[in-house]
C-alpha cells in the first residue's frame, strides 16, 4: 500500500496577529501626523498636495526657536547636574554601608513612581516658601529631581554587573581611593552614565507639566509653546515640529541602546 503522507495544517499565530494590531494601534496615529505634515492645506481634513513649506516656516519661527533654546538649556543643565550627583549616589549606595541605607535608596528612586503633578506642586510650594523667583533655572532645579532618579537607576544597574573586586585590586596595587574611582570604576560606568543621561535628556526635553508649574516670565519651553498653540487647533507647522521631535527622540534612543548593547557585548567577551 502507498505510504500516506501527513499534511500539516496551516498554523495560525495569534501572537503575531496581536503584535501587528498592537503596532498598528501605537504607530498609525504617528504615521498620519507625519503624512499631514507635508500637506499643502492648513487643515488636515483633506489632502491638497505635497509641500515642505511648513518645515521651512517652522525654522523661521522665532518663538519656536526661542522655546527650543530654553528647552535645550534646561535639559542640558539638569542632565549635567544629575549625571554627577546620580553617579555618586549610585556608587555610594552600592559600595558603602550606613544606617538607613534601604530607606535612602527607596526615597532616591521615588520620583520614578510619583506623579508629575505631585512633583510640580511640591516644587512650586517649596520655591514659594523659600521665596525664590521663578525663572528658567527653577525649571532646571525641578527637572534635576527626576533626572537624578533615572541616571542613578541606570548607573546602579550597570554597577550590579561589575566585578566588585576591581577597585580592591587597584587599591592593593597602590592606587588611592580617588585614583581607583577615576581610572578604574568611572570608565566601566561610563556606558551606563551616558545611557542614563540620554534617557533623562529626552524626558526633560519632553516635559510639560513640571515646567509649566515652575517656569517664570519669559521662560517658555518647547512643550509649553506647543500646548499654547494647539488650543485653537493643530496646525501643519506643529505637525512638522512633532515629526522632528520624534525623530530626535528616536535617534537618542538608538544611541542609548547602541551604547548599552556594545557594553553588554564587551562584558561577554571579557
Q: State the distance separating the first and last CA atoms.
A: 61 Å
In total, the number of strands is 0
Low-confidence stretches: none
What does the average pLDDT come to?
84
What order do the helices and strands follow?
HHHHHHHHHHH
* Share of helical residues: over 70%
Largest sheet: none
- Taken from the alpha-carbon principal axes, the silhouette is globular
Summed up, the helix count is 11
The radius of gyration is 25 Å
Structural class of the helix and strand makeup?
mainly alpha
Estimate the strand proportion.
under 5%
Explain this structure:
This protein has eleven helices and no strands. The chain has helices spanning 14-36, 53-58, 62-95, 101-108, 116-129, 136-160, 165-172, 177-206, 209-214, 222-229, 236-269. Helix 1 crosses helix 11 (236-269), helix 6 packs across helix 8 (177-206) and helix 8 packs antiparallel against helix 11 (236-269). The longest helix is centred in the N-terminal third of the chain and has 34 residues, at 62-95. The termini are far apart. The chain crosses the membrane at residues 12-38, 72-94, 106-130, 136-159, 180-202, 238-256. Keywords: Cell membrane, Membrane, Transmembrane, Transmembrane helix, Transport. InterPro entries: Bact_Polyamine_Transport, MetI-like, MetI-like_sf.
Descriptors:
270 residues; 11 helices; mainly alpha; 0% strand; globular
In short:
By secondary structure, the chain is mainly α. It has helices spanning 14-36, 53-58, 62-95, 101-108, 116-129, 136-160, 165-172, 177-206, 209-214, 222-229, 236-269.
